[in-house]
Design brief:
Two copies of one chain form a homodimer. Chain A is 23% helix and 37% strand. Chain A is globular. About 6% of the residues of chain A have low confidence. The first copy, chain A, is built from three helices and seven strands. Chain A has 144 residues and is of the alpha/beta class.
Chain lengths: 144, 144
């Protein structure tokens, strides 16, 4: 396996959601920092810390194969030299369903490492329902 | 008002939860980065970005005065030179109630700024219920 280098945090994030859609465990773990210092909170509220815990729960989630399409909206980026925080809405459509489920709000934290940008924390939970009048934000809102 | 300097991310976090308990809006905003680049997700799922939005919702939450006691457990710290991520369980007891509510899981991201350590992101959501057999972790689990 070649080691993947993500030149930007956005590249790492794209790879994260592609791995989720493809239910590809190795691609998913390539996005994460190789350090033991990683934290992942899935929408059900279980907090996972360290490589083994994080990997095991993705493995369980991916066991039934690709089942989700992800559309990322309402992105807010906090960009630093060594760190980026991407706050997004995840609009998830389950295979066989016509419409996306109510959105999740996710906080994704990326660190610039010797091996490029990697995820160190992911926290997703149900978003409050947006008013129907609000237009979907196609372009990311970049604060910095 | 004197500007508060937090020499460590832990100091900033202690001030964050003290401000929450005291419903002290000015103390709360002193914990946050002075940049526009801040993001806050409360357990109901509303994502707030920028100083004005973040401040306004804390103002609303604090309008009825101090109502909560916070006990922080199961802390995992990801520590870098310029950045720390603290993942914690928030055990919240509401005034007049005997027992804490079911815990929240929070991801707190701190940045080392010219004005000391400041919060740049807070994401809290309901934690999955822990098995009763698990002992409460009194001491923080530090990975790094």
């Amino acid at each position: 396996m070649t080691v993947k280098i993500f030149p930007t945090a956005r590249d790492a994030q794209n790879a994260f959601y592609e791995a989720l859609e493809r239910a590809d465990l190795e691609a998913m773990m390539t996005v994460w920092s190789e350090d033991e210092d990683i934290v992942c909170v899935h929408p059900a509220g279980q907090r996972l810390a360290g490589q083994a815990e994080v990997r095991e729960v993705w493995r369980q989630m991916f066991a039934s194969g690709p089942t989700m399409r992800m559309r990322i909206t309402q992105q807010v980026v906090i960009a630093g030299v060594m760190l980026e925080v991407h706050s997004v809405h995840e609009n998830i459509t389950i295979a066989g369903e016509q419409r996306p489920r109510p959105p999740m709000v996710a906080t994704n934290v990326y660190l610039r490492t010797a091996a490029g940008w990697r995820m160190i924390a992911h926290h997703a939970s149900p978003a409050s329902v947006q008013p129907a009048a609000e237009p979907p934000s196609a372009s990311p809102k970049i604060l910095h």
